[in-house]
Amino acid sequence: MSLQRRHPGLNLGAAHQEADDASEVLVFGFWVFMMSDLIVFGLLFATYATMLGATAGGPGPRDLFDLRSAFVETMLLLASSFTFGMASLALKYRRDRGRLLFWLGLTLALGAGFLGFEVHDFLAMIAKGGAPSRSGYLSAFFALVPLHGLHVTAASLWLVVLTVQSLVFGLDTRVKTGLLRLGILWHFLDLIWIGIFSFVYLAGLA
Amino acid sequence: MSGGATWDPLLGRLGLDALPFWSMIEHPTRPEIVNGSIATAAASVVVLGALAVVVLVTRKGWWRALWSDWLTSVDHKKIGIMYVVLAFVMLARGVVEAVLMRAQQAFGLGGGFLSPEHFGQLFSTHGTIMIFFVAMPFLSGLINFVMPLQIGARDVSFPVLNSISLGLTAAGAGLVMVSLVVGRFSTGGWSGYPPFTELAYSPGVGPDYWIWSVTLSSLGSTLTGVNFAVTIYKQRAPGMHLFRMPLFCWTALCTSILMIFAMPPLTVATLLLALDRYAGFHFFTTTLGGDMMNYANLFWLFGHPEVYILILPAFGVFSEVFSTFSGKRLYGYSSLVAATMVIAVLSFTVWLHHFFTMGQDADINAAFGIATMTIGIPTGVKVYDWLLTLFRGRVRLTTPMIYALGFTVLFVVGGLSGILLANPTIDFQVHNTLFLVAHFHNMLVPGLLFGMLAGYSFWFPKAFGFRLDERWGRISALAWIVGFMLAFFPLYALGLLGMPRRMVAFFQPAYLPWTIAAGLGGLVILFALFSLVVQLRVSVGAREANRVPVGDPWDGRSLEWATAAPPPEYNFPVLPEVGSRDPFMTAKEAGAAYQEPEAYEDIEMPANSALGALLCLCGGAAGFGLVWYLFWLVVPALAVALGALIARSFLRRTTRTIAAGEVRRTHRHWLAEVSRTAAVTRAGECDVRNRGRAVPAALEAAE
Amino acid sequence: MSGGRQELTPEAARERVQELRACVWGLGLALLLTLVPFALVALGGLPRQPTLWTIGLLALVQIVVHFRFFLHIDLSRQKREDLQLILFSLLILLIMVGGTLWIIFDLYVRMMPAMLP
Q1: Does B294 touch chain A (CB under 8 A)?
Q2: DSSP codes joined into one string, B532-570
Q3: Is residue C2 part of a domain?
Q4: Do C60 and C82 fall within a single domain?
Q5: Is the CB of residue C30 less than 8 Å away from at least one CB of chain A?
Q6: Residue ranges of the Heme-copper oxidase subunit III family profile domain (chain A) (predicted)?
Q7: DSSP string over B273-293
Q8: C100 and C64, same structural domain?
């Protein structure tokens, strides 16, 4: 019974009857949408790879990337994936709003920290002459990495909206299914970040 | 970085020269006056047409009904109908532009009457409109209307999202229409290839109109694809296994999957081009490491699956039409399903054949050439299945059937020319000539448009409760077929003679007879379009005589015919239990159709939402603002859109309940109508005897 | 409904511990798989080519780890249509990205060697 799954990813289980029913279609639909988004990122990665040589005499990865900063961003995002996982467990087993909000707040803080570091990175790159209009290579970088950042921003906004809703309405079906979908988005963005830190930052500095 | 041209913070790039008649006033030369008059006339049609609609709606007092019954409706049937209306409006513009281009080339020896700039806009808008704002809305509309009925569902999985998709598509279409009045459209063709469409070579607003209208529509299509696919996976009636679905649903599923995966490359391509144009990036520029070959690759990663997004639903329509109007089960159902799936997957493996001549290795060309030819196999399987469905059937030559037969013959011709083009060595000879134009029109006119028009005549009675006029329908279908052959077969010859595509004028007298023939074909097509309008007018006038309230005018086989015409908002009073393929036909043959259910229950339906209409306005405003650098308009438009989405998520009551008593009343009323109505045999299918109750083909001999 | 914690059934409690353990395992493995490549690059011990291969390989492993432990995707317990969705998406991604790299780099070799990294 407990192994009965309605959709890929975290399932709420029979203890949340109504939300569990509603989530079947919503979560599956969100997965389908994520797969479409995956193609967008895949193509931007491919474009980045084809533009690696297009530095046009401008600065390249070694001149612009800061390994330490990339490491901090990676850790922040990984930690936020963990805290979101804890939030999901609090939602599923505790139905305890206080604990849920604590983990969600921590996730949001980590996400904001990540964005802060990222924006700082971008500004530092531009200050070193690495603006997107400098070369095809930098254009490809600034299409791929900030798009991920934009996704994290959107996900953080969504997190805030859901938090407010859980304060207004309690943990009702809409909030629960919303958190399930946000969880998928959050972990998905961490997956994309694995691609970014490996193929953009580490491969660029190796 | 704003292209050198100056722009005002308030008016952006808007100026008097954005008006279509301005340049003819400033430089009153003969060519300027000819082109300016044509552009002004076109703009006037748009403005006057919009005004006429506003006046009509106001005088009839329809605003309230328009708002609450249509624009804010999330009923899949109404959204489907609105999509088709949008497609027809845009089709009218696309056909008129086509006829203008044919006329230009018929007079084109040594000049013609259009300027190269004007001709460039015509072929760019024609292609963009026909693909994104005729074909896509038409097929989305048909699937929206038919698919939930066929699988026995009450609505799609995400009804509000459905309305948002429509809104985004309509906003894109609106931008293209606005470009006729304010400013100029792109001259870069429907594929918008850089570097020509980069700021350095096209500094005007044209490519920006193209980018934002296409981006809006591609976002809408992605969401539509997600919605349809989830609906088919999750909302099927009990017992409706995937392999009991009508073939149209299978093609709808494959088309949706293609939309989900093939629209992202287009979105990426147009947005990267936008970054180049707006923010000085260098993706596809000629300097600082830009590489336009990336664009060609990205665009056709979308472009080729797109062809199958367009054609698969038409295959689905034809499958339904062939089996219904032959009074037979569809021949080779499983092979048709398999062929559809194979086509869907293979369509992702052939995109390079759109740029065989770009300079890659012969091995790569060969690989993609072979993959391309492979698609001919499943397509051939389909053609044989359809022919065998006709074999020994009770074939009736109704309007949809005429389209279907015309399609079968013409599509095979087009397919054969495709096999020629799939060979890289031949492609090198004829690429960029009218041969290619002839080929893809030969696929898309019979393969897409005929399918959509067949679907329109087939399901119109279901949607509105009365049949379309058969005589004008047949005239129109024949005119489309003849017009198509006359307009496009000469282009094969012209292509082999070496005439390049997209050419405003030519100096080779040998082309002239062919361009004149093609021009006459254009006129026949114009007549075909005109007969569609007449048909609608005549049918609406005679609607009382042609009513089919029982809802089954063609002796249908699948579930959409098992309900009233027009169907109630909730489609089925009680969700049907499906025990076989062609469930409605099985029920009719067993005398078990039109039964009263044991009990009625309350039905929960999604409530109306203004979100789609609002996002349509915001999307249109943001697009227009971006085109003209009116950033004071863009920011609030996007903010309102975001705010509306968030506000909507705070809404907790999003459904309304229809009481069991009301469902019972409506259903009993319809059942009484059914028992009052005499069933007709197929001999009376196309006359006033047909009230929508059919004697099933298998029982007709006994009758 | 948002009130204090509720008593869990023994079965649910066991399941909770299981999922908690998965979460912690995920974090641990992901940390390891992140630290190793960062260390490789920071310390610069290996030559470039093997470093790149290691980074790529570890990234793929880490993606699988995230799928398994954070997104709760594995091959055994899904409904078939969900598994089909993910596998089909990966197939399309592979075709698109692989095809793009094949085509564009071939074009560079033949026509624009300056664009090769």
Answers
A1: yes
A2: HHHHHHHHHHTTTTTB-TTS-TT---SGGGGS-SSPPTT
A3: no
A4: no
A5: yes
A6: 1-205
A7: HHHHHHH---SS-SSTT--HH
A8: no
Minimal Cα–Cα distance from B379 to chain A, Å?
A: 27
Residues B640-661: what's their mean pLDDT? 95
Task: Give the mean pLDDT of chain C.
Answer: 86
Closest A-chain CA to C92: A39
A and B: number of Cβ contacts within 8 A: 109
Q: Note the pLDDT of residue B703.
A: 57
Q: d(Cα B324, Cα B359) in Å, to the nearest integer?
A: 49
Q: Do residues C109 and C91 share a domain?
A: yes
Cα–Cα distance for residue pair B589/B329, rounded to 1 Å: 13
Question: Chain A contact for C16, CB < 8 A?
Answer: yes
Counted domains in chain A: 1
C23 shares its domain with C40: yes
Domain count, chain C: 2
Contact list in B for residue A35 (CB cut-off 8 A) is: 260-261
Q: Could you say which residues of chain A have pLDDT below 70?
A: 1-6, 8-9, 14, 95
Q: Helix (H, G, I), strand (E, B), or coil: what is residue B688?
A: coil
Q: Do residue C67 and residue C91 come from a single domain?
A: no
Q: Is residue A3 in some structural domain?
A: no
* Residue numbers in A near B281 (CB within 8 A): 132-133, 139, 142-143
Q: Do C16 and C67 belong together in one domain?
A: yes
SS3 B654: coil
- Pair (C69, C106) in one structural domain: no
- A116 part of a folded domain: yes
pLDDT-above-90 percentage for chain B: 95
Domain that holds residue A198: 30-47+58-205
CA atoms of C108 and A54, how far apart (whole Å): 11
Enumerate residues 74 to 93 of chain C having a beta carbon within 8 A of any beta carbon in chain B.
Answer: 81, 88-89, 91-92
Task: Confirm whether C98 is domain-assigned.
Answer: yes
Distance of alpha carbon B654 from alpha carbon B656, whole angstroms: 7
pLDDT for residue B405: 97
pLDDT at res. B676: 95
Q: Is B658 helix (H, G, I), strand (E, B) or coil?
A: strand
- Say how far apart CA B647 and CA B328 lie, in whole Å: 51
CATH superfamily of the B62-609+654-700 domain: Cytochrome c oxidase-like, subunit I domain (1.20.210.10)
DSSP state at residue B596? P
pLDDT at A1: 33
How much is the average pLDDT of C62-86? Answer: 77
Whether B361 contacts chain C with CB within 8 A: yes
Say if C64 falls within a structural domain: yes
What ipTM did this prediction achieve?
0.95
Q: Check if C29 contacts A (Cβ < 8 Å).
A: no
Q: For position A134, which CATH number holds?
A: 1.20.120.80
Sign of the alpha-carbon dihedral angle for A164, A168, A171, A172: negative
Tokens of B147: 């698919």
How far apart, in whole angstroms, are the C-alpha atoms of residue B322 and residue C77?
A: 41
CB atoms within 10 A of CB C39: 12
Residue C112 is part of which domain span?
A: 77-117
Assess if residue A10 is contained within a domain. no
Residue of B293, B308, B358 best to disrupt the C interface, most CBs of C under 10 A: B293
Per the prediction, chain B carries an average pLDDT of: 95
- Amino acid letter for position B60: K
Q: CA-CA distance, B423 to B179, in Å (whole number)?
A: 39
pLDDT tens-place string over residues B386-444: 999 999 999 999 999 999 999 999 999 999 999 999 999 999 999 999 999 999 999 99
- pLDDT confidence of B293, banded at 50, 70, 90? very high
Q: Do A194 and C82 touch (CB under 8 A)?
A: no
Task: Give domain status of residue C60, yes or no.
Answer: yes
Chain B contact present for A132, CB below 8 A: yes
Residue A25 within a domain: no
Q: Which residue has the tokens 């459209």?
A: B185
Q: Do B282 and A54 touch (CB under 8 A)?
A: yes
